[in-house]
Amino acid sequence: MEHFELPLVFFTVLTQWGIGALLAVIIGQQRATPVFAPQTLKRVALFVWLVTVIGSLASVAHLGAPTGAPRALYGLAHSWLSREVVAFFLLNALTTLWLLMVWINVNARLTTLVGLIAVLLGFIAILVSSQVYYQMVLHPLWHSAATQLAFVGCALLLGFVSIAVFARLWGSDVARRLQLGIVVGVAAVACAVVWRYRLPGADAASLLLWWQLLASIVTGGVVFVLLRQGKFAPWAGVLAIALVFTGEIAGRMLFYSNVMSGAPWF
């Protein structure tokens, strides 16, 4: 029986997307001519916030008793799961503060500083989240640096693809640094896939794997090429974001099912 753990799939993919997108926004705005004008930036910031918060709410669906979530704090000294709860709580608080600062037009430097702190905390949260799985030494598919690489790669690929597409559709231009972010994201996801599927027990025949290869890695490469050529219709941009998102969802479903479909898995 397959165990995809969909709440965890959407929690990890969406929050990582939001973190990567926030990084891409901050980088894109640090130019003589920012990628997004102030009014457009407000819409983009709202998108980043929504993705992050919706992803965080998905994690609540995984809890048998969501009202008991505060008890996770009791294990902060020894539990990676407890640290994950705290990290994402702080991330959501900082992302919300950054959104408010963008919307009420607070000083740009101060807003950027808060955004950078949120990004730093976000990537710490990603590494803490990956450690929840990496610590399980009995499962080579999780106890591998491919776990951290896949989580960070997801953040970079989804984040930079979406913000680069928004920049192409609504911004002044697609900054080269955003295009570079896509390349790094594609490379990280590809390396994680190759690494993981060299390990015993990996389901290399799964259609989910092939969909991730096509929808995440190939689409990411195509987006980079089209952006370089300056040819990108609005419908193509929306389709590209949707494809990469579904590709990462497929990859994360396989990440969980490869281990949790076994019995016992802990």
Automatic annotation (TrEMBL):
<feature type="transmembrane region" description="Helical">
    <location>
        <begin position="6"/>
        <end position="26"/>
    </location>
</feature>
<feature type="transmembrane region" description="Helical">
    <location>
        <begin position="85"/>
        <end position="106"/>
    </location>
</feature>
<dbReference type="GO" id="GO:0009390">
    <property type="term" value="C:dimethyl sulfoxide reductase complex"/>
</dbReference>
<feature type="transmembrane region" description="Helical">
    <location>
        <begin position="113"/>
        <end position="134"/>
    </location>
</feature>
<dbReference type="InterPro" id="IPR007059">
    <property type="entry name" value="DmsC"/>
</dbReference>
<dbReference type="GO" id="GO:0009389">
    <property type="term" value="F:dimethyl sulfoxide reductase activity"/>
</dbReference>
<dbReference type="GO" id="GO:0019645">
    <property type="term" value="P:anaerobic electron transport chain"/>
</dbReference>
<protein>
    <recommendedName>
        <fullName>Anaerobic dimethyl sulfoxide reductase subunit C</fullName>
    </recommendedName>
</protein>
<dbReference type="Pfam" id="PF04976">
    <property type="entry name" value="DmsC"/>
</dbReference>
<feature type="transmembrane region" description="Helical">
    <location>
        <begin position="234"/>
        <end position="255"/>
    </location>
</feature>
<feature type="transmembrane region" description="Helical">
    <location>
        <begin position="178"/>
        <end position="197"/>
    </location>
</feature>
<feature type="transmembrane region" description="Helical">
    <location>
        <begin position="146"/>
        <end position="166"/>
    </location>
</feature>
<keyword id="KW-1133">Transmembrane helix</keyword>
<feature type="transmembrane region" description="Helical">
    <location>
        <begin position="46"/>
        <end position="65"/>
    </location>
</feature>
<feature type="transmembrane region" description="Helical">
    <location>
        <begin position="209"/>
        <end position="227"/>
    </location>
</feature>
<dbReference type="GO" id="GO:0005886">
    <property type="term" value="C:plasma membrane"/>
</dbReference>
<keyword id="KW-0472">Membrane</keyword>
<keyword id="KW-0812">Transmembrane</keyword>
